[in-house]
Design a protein that fits this description.
homotetramer; alpha/beta; Rossmann fold; nine-stranded mixed sheet; 9 strands
Chain lengths: 314, 314, 314, 314
């Protein structure tokens, strides 16, 4: 693989899966990166597990060392409620796996993003459907919690910097310092490269969220190193960067017409994204999709941290 | 102008202004279309008036015969509240002009679009800030209304077909039949071609809204012919079609590299929009922009139909 | 029963059940009114059926002739999701019974009330969770609908007069005229007398909604007589009138201290409600309750008019 | 004043003004409490300043030592926009006074309360309309801020315990620890005794918010002592406690009928609030009132901490 190709692929995706796909020969092992796939034909759900093992892998993938699990469920966009249960069970399974056990732990869930921007409202909408329990556990005691199979869960939607004047990381660091959770689960809307992954894919990782990963901007990162607690990040791609979509379509068109690698490279490097920076592409039915998938994720999280909701009511 | 060029420009815009710009030689008169421009340097506001005079003009512009006034106010996206007043005054002025007088008339305002999709929420948000008066006029009488310089205003946000199972035109036709307004003002989010026009431009027209204009789909149109009342449509472009943005960037890149008209045409005609159909491009701060500009429009409408709000309170 | 008692009980309730309870001797038959009760001990759900048979009954009950079914499910306020299913099944059962069959019918659901006032948002929230199908049936045909066990459903939240300047009845009459449904289902928040019924009780009736029932204000009524289509009204008490709660507590206190019927009557008739008119009493957790019970009702309605949602997706 | 009377008046109000009124002889000085009144006849705005000077005053008033300024503006509920300006100017004036200067200070504004419960949404709605600047000041520097007369403002709506599992005080303490503001301004919906004060009255105090004041529950208090920063609390009464309204009406009725102090006392002490605890009374148009008054307060706060918004844009 030559550098030019790498440049062309140097477009924004928050999915480790897509980063991995950007390498041309799909079958060749990238050093330091392990890829596993599973497919449930009946449910039409594909699970991909990308493990970045060492620094070499991290550099190649431009993502931190850790485990990235992707649930691809193309049918989840549809209206069938029955389909959501297997997906929410998978969400629960992988959160529990990455958390290495949740019993007796206090979890803080943070719904990142802007509540009033549909494509960015995933995090706040997930939080709106959580069944928080920390105040109950504190009031009625751990015996009560144990009897009801209830861990201690708290949750917050910190808003975005344009609304608060603060970084989400500042707000969360303060709350963590004050309330001492064992695990932070962060929910966020992601950017994908492929339009077909929008609102159908859930990525769960134990690496947290690292804006501008590797650039030393660690203060704004939400990960174990910066926060001192275990961090699990759960994201759904809801947008594609407008510049990325333009470049991808153009590259595809040029290749189809027989342009050489070199020519494609030259062509694209002359383009400017100026007027589409700060623009994103999103589907027209994004409101329905977000409502649906945020509900599925809430169900998954609720079921991890409160295993017997029925009993507790009675 | 050859046909190829026309084809290339055959992309979606709801602005008569942009349709007019798509003709190559800007200075040449298009038969049946009159263009006038005005520029207020101090306020940095440009007014363009496109009059489509006859069928020939309508065909060339692919828009119905009538008047299209566009207010371009690039600074309206900023935070300065003082700037909104001149824009809302212009909105009021042109509504009043196109309505050919409002005294003693009953106006129904319809805020089209999907309240839960930020880029489509312009109409409902405008309606949320209106000061409706029809029930007051009915209760306290026309003498009261006259004394308070209050016309009769009603308003509705009919929702979108995916939420209601009905066309907006069906809902509005029923309400008009029942409540007999003299004027319908429809507010809607539009699609533009140029990213720079998003959330900075207001189009006001006396032609109403004609989905698939000229294709005989008149039943869903919202215009005087189909509804039997005067219709004024007020729109703000909030999105660019994703396929349009891809094609426009590509065309620009190809031209810059010296491709001939014919080659550009061939190139683009081979592209497929498949995976970006039903996708739109919108700025990241669309929530703020919509909140701001819908408030400006509400103020404009309120001031047309209720000229002395202060007096009425006392 | 003397007149004084009747006066004391002359306070606002939208529940036929509570109107019936206001008669002192519960066991004595009121002429023209039949009462039946059922109790499901396991689920702790009580069903009461009040049938007003004739004019005499209507006058005594101050409600129109027809059937009033009340589902009292005190546990529905709790967080247990499993509990909602039996309630939503009962909702479906009684809608289907009162509609005397739904096959091949087109239903319009109207969510009355003010979306931005929590205690009044029941109707709009129910509509937000409906799976409307009318546009699908029109696009894909009745064969498609039949195969998928889908009736034609449309829905609207018309807003309140302070927002629209129009009566809900005007808006709905227009839409009905235009779209010709066979059945109108109206959802509305109700006023109860008893605090304990708030958010735990669902009333379903085939009499529609008659503001100021019997006062000749029929134009604003939503019933078969005024609209020309079958009307089923579904309501949940979410508030108690502030004046009612004050009078009830006072009456109770006076009786407890041995005041005579006559004295209680005199005492209360001297009170003025002036400063609590236009005030209502509602529980602090009304937001959770409304969210929960509106979801239960949506599920019930969806299951009546779309019996095989899963199949339709595949 | 005898103890019985005091007991009768021992009902919930968050307004120092109403606490003061509960003392029978209005003209007699309460030791340790200074009362000043001002009335602007033209604007129909009354300003009351209650200063609690020492422990004796604090005990009598059941409120912490400090200054309580109340703006009573009965006309603010109306639709006249012109009226809001003088009120927002008063809000600005008293915040600046109680803050003893704001130049060069960093303020954090906290909008307490439940966004999805209309009567409790004042705080979040105020925050939604703030113009936060802390991130701008950090990015562009203090020179830029100074030139634009912009102080550093951040803001958060922490939600309520049922949504987050955390006390607001925990969340705010963490954020304050992390971001080090000089002043905390807390906005909250209050409970009043008098229905006529709902949504027409603004209380501004330098004592912060002390739930269960004086009961040693200091950990949940939001005041200078517990947080280590200056705290200004700004509140608007939006509800009356249901038990309070019942007792007040009953007391009034009993007195009118000539019951003695002793008898009234006995009567009320036998009543139970059981079924109206956790219930509140609120006006039917609370959504409009909250929208309006929260906008007025936002304007006031914005103008204190950003004195030249226009200049900054240019």
């Amino acid at each position: 693989m030559n550098d030019n190709t790498r440049f062309l692929n140097n477009r924004r995706t928050d999915l480790a899966l897509e980063e991995r796909e950007s390498f041309e020969e799909d079958d060749v092992e990238i050093k330091g990166v392990v890829l596993e796939e599973e497919y449930d034909e009946e449910q039409n759900i594909k699970i991909t597990r990308v493990e970045i093992k060492d620094e070499r892998g991290a550099e190649a993938m431009r993502k931190p060392i850790g485990t990235y699990i992707t649930i691809e469920a193309p049918d989840i966009a549809g209206a069938d409620e029955g389909y959501h249960e297997p997906v929410s069970k998978l969400v629960a399974k992988y959160i529990e796996e990455l958390a290495r056990g949740v019993e007796g732990k206090h979890v803080l869930v943070a719904g990142l993003g802007n509540r009033s921007l549909t494509a960015d409202a995933l995090g706040p909408q997930v939080v709106d459907n959580l069944f928080v329990t920390r105040h109950l556990v504190r009031e009625f005691g751990t015996e009560f919690a144990k009897r009801n199979k209830m861990e201690s869960m708290s949750a917050i939607s910190p808003g975005v910097m344009g609304q608060t004047g603060m970084e989400s990381s500042e707000i969360l660091r303060g709350i963590i310092e004050e309330t001492k959770p064992d695990i932070l689960v962060v929910i966020d809307a992601l950017a994908a490269r492929s339009v077909s992954r929008l609102n159908t894919t859930i990525q769960i990782t134990d690496t947290g969220i690292s804006p501008g990963a590797g650039v030393g901007n660690n203060r704004n990162a939400l990960n174990e190193e910066s926060l001192g607690v275990q961090v699990i990040a759960l994201g759904v791609p809801t947008v594609v960067d407008a510049a990325t979509i333009v470049q991808d379509r153009m590259e595809e068109a040029l290749r189809k017409r027989g342009f050489s690698e070199q020519e494609v490279y030259q062509f694209l490097s002359e383009m400017t994204d100026q007027d589409v920076s700060n623009m994103f592409v999103t589907p027209k039915n994004i409101d329905d999709s977000i409502k649906r998938i945020s509900y599925t994720i809430s169900e998954g999280i609720n079921s991890v941290f409160y295993k017997a909701p029925t009993a507790a009511q009675s």
